[in-house]
Amino acid sequence: MAEDHGSSRHMSSMSMSHKELGDDDARVVHVGDAERTNERLQFAGNAVRTAKYSPLTFLPRNLFEQFHRLAYVYFLVIAVLNQLPQLAVFGRGASVMPLAFVLAVTAVKDAYEDWRRHRSDRAENNRLAAVLSPGAGAQFVPTEWKHVRVGDVVRVGANESPPADMVLLATSDTTGVAYVQTLNLDGESNLKTRYAKQETLTTPLEHLAGAVVRCERPNRNIYGFQANLELQGEGRRIPLGPSNIVLRGCDLKNTSWAVGVVVYAGRETKAMLNNAGTPTKRSRLETHMNRETLFLSGILIVLCSAVATLSGVWLRTHQTDLELAQFFHKKDYLKVGKEDNENYNYYGIAAQIVFNFLMAVIVFQIMIPISLYISMELVRLGQAYFMIRDAKLYDASSDSRFQCRALNINEDLGQVKCVFSDKTGTLTQNKMEFRCASIDGVDYSDVAPQRPVAWQRASRLGCQRCR
């Protein structure tokens, strides 16, 4: 079924690539002339950005994402209520410091993760590619990836990745074939063939300066491509399809070199168009805690409503005694010489019920402890440190340690319920190791062969292969 789906997918891509391409909808790329290509329409540069924040947007966006946790909203409400003189139960600073601390710890953690993304983006954009420079005697000169533009002719070596989506013009093979691995795009490790047209393969690169590629607008379909090539001095247009383009993110394999012209660069490449951005990952424990916060908030509202209701009943019952009550002092008797003394610390029964409800919220706030979230953030940082420094998680072949890229989902590590795979090779890497075989009672395993006993000389055949 997987093969049928894959074949139908490629057939649909081929049929789409053979549709007629209108000149109004086409992108015009002049081979080897980036200045002329970008003269009328300034296409996107080749610099990519996968980081989530910038120095200007970090604080508001990070706070917005942090307050998706319902408990943080609850603690913020408690801190705001405690700033009002009529409701203050604890010190004003004491109610703000725990929330500020947990927000600061999470912000530092998120800033460190995004700093690593910025560092990775800089390393990617500063990689070097061989770009054909007409001003240097038609020689390939090293150029940073972020400076590659649409229309540039790029040379890619073996086991290298193209800096952008490019149409093949020539390869090291005399037939124009090139082998690429699309593991980073679709997860398939098998090699795929790409071809350069014979018309460009037999033409020197300096003679392709007047060629024009008309291709479709950037889209996310990595299996489809629709374009045509028009050589200088020839009226006919050579059709181009998905087998003639090498996408950014592929690796050139079993081919010494390949030369192509850039048609999509930067954020317009198919790989970046399929990149949905850095998601906000939330662990199952955090989702469960959000549900528990809602449940406890409901209980809190019921308790505070009961307290407020009973306080209203008491106020109405003792309404005539409030002038002498110790904690109400309905009249301010300290103001001597005034017949109509103003009310002191009393705002009416309705207002007192509201105040008592809000004060009960502050008193019962320990039902949702902020110390739990502080402990969780500190434990996550400690877990990440010990996982990174664990010597048993070190790979000597690649000289790399364990990398904790998302510090807020540590608790989900190893909690795998189901594994779906379309083929066994995805899990076993198509590596099979012979373990043992028993034929006619003789054990042909890795140990020394054993002679069968008489009663075992029956005609039996058993094979076992273990991955």
Automatic annotation (TrEMBL):
EC number: 7.6.2.1
Amino acids binding ATP: 422-424
InterPro entries for this protein: ATPase_P-typ_cyto_dom_N, ATPase_P-typ_P_site, ATPase_P-typ_TM_dom_sf, ATPase_P-typ_transduc_dom_A_sf, HAD-like_sf, HAD_sf, P-type_ATPase_IV, P-type_ATPase_N
Keyword Transmembrane helix annotated: yes
Cofactor: Mg(2+)
Membrane topology: Multi-pass membrane protein
SUPFAM superfamilies, A to Z: Calcium ATPase, transduction domain A, Calcium ATPase, transmembrane domain M, HAD-like
A Pfam family reported for this protein in Swiss-Prot or TrEMBL: PhoLip_ATPase_N
Superkingdom to which the source organism belongs: Eukaryota
Family according to the record: Belongs to the cation transport ATPase (P-type) (TC 3.A.3) family. Type IV subfamily.
Protein name, per record: Phospholipid-transporting ATPase
Domain (P-type ATPase N-terminal) ranges: 29-93
An example Gene Ontology molecular-function term: ATP binding
A GO CC annotation given for this chain: plasma membrane
Subcellular location: Membrane
Binding site for Mg(2+): 422, 424
Chemical reaction(s) catalysed: ATP + H2O + phospholipidSide 1 = ADP + phosphate + phospholipidSide 2
